Amino acid sequence: MCLILFAYRCLPETPLVLGANRDEYYSRPTAAADFWEDHPDILAGRDLVAGGTWLGISQTGRFAALTNFRDPAELKDFGVSRGALTRDFLFSSESPVSYLQKLSEQTLPIKGFNLLVGNTEGLYYYSNRQGTIRCLSPGLYGLSNALLDTPWPKVDSGKAAMAPLLAGAESPCPIEIMRVLADRTIPPDETLPNTGVGRDWERILSPRFIVSPTYGTRSSTVLIAETSGRVRFTERTFQQGSAVIPDRNFDFAVDSPLR
Question: Residue 201 belongs to what domain range?
Answer without folding.
Answer: 3-252
